[in-house]
Amino acid sequence: MSDGNGNLPLTVRVERHGVVVIVVDGELDVATAPILASALEQAATGEAPVVVDLSRVRFADCAGIRPLLATRHRLTGMGQGLAVQGPSTAVRTLFSVLGLDALLQDVAATTADATPPG
User: Fold this and answer.
1) Among 16, 83, 97, 3, which Cα is nearest to 49's?
2) 3-state SS assignment for residue 22
3) Which CATH class is domain 10-114?
C-alpha cells in the first residue's frame, strides 16, 4: 500500500558480493509501478545482479510487474540478471495467470547463485 502520498515504500541496499537488493512493501500497481521503475533504473547499472524482494507485496497487477520484466530484459542484454526473491501469494498468483511461472523458477536459481550462503 502507498503511504497516502502515492509513494511505494522501497529500500535499496547492496548486499555482500555486490548484489543489489530492492525490497518492495505494499501494493504494486499502476499507481506505484513508476516508483519501482525508477528504483530499478537506478539499481540496474549492469555492474551487479539485481534481486527484488516481493515477499511484502499485498497486491500486484500487470502494470506493477511490467518494470520487472523490462529491467530483466535490459539486464540480460548487459550480461547480468534480475531475480525475484520470496514472491508473495499475490505475486505468485499474478505470475501464474500471466504464464510467467517459468520466470519464477529461473529466479530461484538466479537468487541461489547471486545470494551468498549464511
Assistant:
1) 83
2) strand
3) alpha beta
